[in-house]
Amino acid sequence: MKQYKHYIFTILLSLIFLEIAAQKKEMKLPTTRILFIFDASQSMLGTWESGKKINIARKYLISIVDSLEQIDNIQMALRVYGHQSPVPPQDCSDTKLEVPFSDNNASRIRQKLRYLIPKGTTPIAYSLERAEYDFPDCPNCRNVIILITDGIEACDGDPCAVSERLQRKGIFLKPFVIGIGYDPYFKETFDCIGNFYNTPNEEKFKEVLGVVISRALNSTTAQVNLLDINNKPTETNVNLTFYDNFSGKIKYNFVHTINYMGNPDTLILDPLITYDIVAHTLPPRRIDSIKLTSGKHTMIGIKAPQGYLTISCPGSFQYKDLQTIIREKDKPQTLTVQLLNKTQKFIIGKYDLEVLTLPKILIEDAEIQQSKTTTIKIPRPGIANFLMSSSGYTSLYTEKKDTLIHIYNFETNTTRKSLVLQPGNYKVVYRAKNVKESIYTISKKFNIKSGTSQSIILH
């Protein structure tokens, strides 16, 4: 019997995993677009271990292009600088998109790399500026730059400022910069541009190029734990928005889920981005500057203990679409508006409620507790039927300690009006429109009781 149950469980589990795999297969994966910015300045003719820098760099880059050609959802492009104009004189506009993004363009990139002849200067900042236009609009693409250079900026540009500006605009992710050979100024110069890798020898260059490609392509996993008051990950069914911490742009939206195994679901994320995460609870909860490591599962905890709030009016059918304004305790901003007899989840704590009855009901310090439902009951209303001898100017008040508190103005052209009112004492003030003397103002007091109806005649 136990073996039979285990067999059934195994089959069900297999079916679940097959369903998950099918769903993931149907997901529209983003296209990764890699722009190689390649240094073909005059200094690349220099010797480096087994040969000239240009020959070593293009040999390994061509082998990378060969590998990427076989992978789905990858597009490549090639921008080259320093290859059009010799020095002297110095041409700081010497940069060109030699092979734009497209499918099946690997052979064109290889061909261009094979016949590059280093000639000119090193306009890194200008090349990055022009790269903004190398990425056509694409709603489901991640844009990556891999800059391969043996020298620092040789013109008057500021590559760090350009890189930062274009990252903030969301044009591309933080670039990868591979420095060919050893230069003491490399790290100081390139760290601010992007992810810098120093390659003092040929073997290291080959290794780093592979690491960079792996980082550019690989996703990683994370698990967001929405923690209850006991720091257990029991909260769920909340939309999570992942923002790029640098550009502020939205990268993902996931509705948090507890998976079939009873754990918060695993998310597949881009590890090149530092994230700010907002859990859209009421009120929202936010956690900033979350960094991921490629290939490493990251657990992210957000404190989001929640309970429930219901506002009801037992025995009454007079209220239709009655709204309640809800604010956090001692905060003037409206948090949300809730309808009568509806239940919403809130972060635990105290709230101030403004029920939009006539007159308004103000409730302070309504407390939400973990996993419990707080029910606010408002009194059953009554109905007041107003009959005016003619159209005029009519207003309704409550009276407290000889002070009139205004709650409603009637339309001036009306002679009949029914209002749903909370139980209590009221005063109505009326003057006919065609009467031009204030002495003919009429004031009447009346009382409303729950579940009753009465007529107030004004003439």
Attribute tags:
459 residues, alpha/beta, Rossmann fold, Immunoglobulin-like, six-stranded mixed β-sheet, four-stranded antiparallel β-sheet, 7 helices, 40% strand, elongated
Walk me through the structure.
The radius of gyration is 35 Å and the shape is elongated. 19% of the residues lie in helices and 40% in strands. The strands form eight sheets. The protein has a six-stranded mixed sheet with strand order 5-4-1-6-7-8, with helices on both faces. It has a four-stranded antiparallel sheet with strand order 11-10-13-14, with no helix packed on it. Strands 18-17-20-21 form a four-stranded antiparallel sheet, with no helix packed on it. With 459 residues, the protein is an alpha/beta fold. The chain has four domains: 190 residues, von Willebrand factor, type A domain (Rossmann fold, 3-Layer(aba) Sandwich); 85 residues, Sandwich (Immunoglobulin-like), CATH 2.60.40.1120; 72 residues, Immunoglobulin-like, CATH 2.60.40; 77 residues, Carboxypeptidase-like, regulatory domain (Immunoglobulin-like, Sandwich), CATH 2.60.40.1120. Helix 4 packs parallel to helix 5. The termini are far apart.
What's a quick, concise take on this entry?
This protein is of the alpha/beta class.
Provide the CATH topology of the largest domain.
Rossmann fold
**Overall helicity:** 10-25%
Whole-number tally of structural domains? 4
Give a short account of the largest sheet. Answer: 6 strands, mixed
CATH architecture of the largest domain: 3-Layer(aba) Sandwich
Shape: elongated
Our count of helices gives: 7
Q: How is the largest sheet built, in terms of strand order?
A: 5-4-1-6-7-8
Q: pLDDT average, as an integer?
A: 91
Radius of gyration: 35 Å
